[in-house]
Design a protein that fits this description.
- By secondary structure, this protein is α+β, with helices and mostly antiparallel strands.
- The protein has two domains: 96 residues, no CATH class; 96 residues, Trna Endonuclease, Chain: A, domain 1.
- The protein is 44% helix and 14% strand.
- The chain has a five-stranded mixed sheet.
- Helix 4 packs across helix 5.
- The two termini are 27 Å apart.
- The structure holds zinc ion.
């Protein structure tokens, strides 16, 4: 469950960590570049930190850096560290990325789609931002047990790689579950959804 309330909310507000001039004018960034996924938004923020984009928006850092600012401000505000760096980064990620995009992501669209078709499974949004090894977008469950994952990628990702539609990459050694790649085109249509539905039915 995404959670941006509580003491970290107070700290963030009082210390002005997410003030647009100290971070990034996030809604303007979203309106301007219309990212379709959380991952795309994370990259957009980083891009506007390191590059001079013609749109004129400048970010003062990356999501990780905003998290670090929040982490360090604890010492000033509380005279002690109450939350880990990891928790602080996750909190800023939830604020800037998850909350900002709300229901409008391509991942949500895919989840609704799969939940409608595959009744024996449930599809949920994956939430950890920092777990690089498990950077998947959607978790597939059967009887409440995780059986696989889905990465949602723009078609341009695939054409960069000269691969035929390739699923079934293992997320990592720890997880050992199949990860499917769902591709969408410029019109936000999923181009290999039916293939993935078949693969999941065979899990
Ligand atoms: Zn821009």
């Amino acid at each position: 469950m995404t959670y941006t309330g509580g003491p970290l909310n107070e700290l963030n507000g009082k210390m002005g960590i997410s003030a647009p001039f100290r971070s990034v004018p996030i809604m303007k960034l979203i309106r301007t570049h219309k990212p379709l996924s959380k991952d795309a938004l994370v990259q957009l923020i980083a891009y506007h930190y390191t590059n001079e984009c013609p749109c004129g928006i400048k970010s003062q850092g990356t999501v990780e850096m905003f998290g670090r600012n929040l982490y360090e401000s604890q010492l000033v505000y509380w005279k002690e560290y109450r939350y880990s760096l990891k928790e602080c980064i996750q909190w800023e990620y939830d604020l800037f990325v998850v909350q900002s995009l709300k229901g409008g992501t391509i991942e949500k669209k895919a989840i609704d789609d799969f939940n409608g078709v595959l009744k024996d499974f449930s599809f949920e949004e994956a939430e950890g931002f920092l777990d690089e090894d498990l950077r998947i977008d959607i978790i597939i469950k059967r009887n409440a047990i995780e059986v696989g994952g889905i990465q949602v990628k723009p078609l341009t990702f695939k054409s960069m790689r000269q691969e035929v539609i390739s699923f079934n990459k293992k997320a990592n050694q720890k997880w050992c579950k199949p990860v499917f790649y769902l591709y969408y085109d410029k019109g936000e249509h999923f181009i290999n959804r039916d293939d993935i539905v078949k693969e999941i039915q065979n899990l």
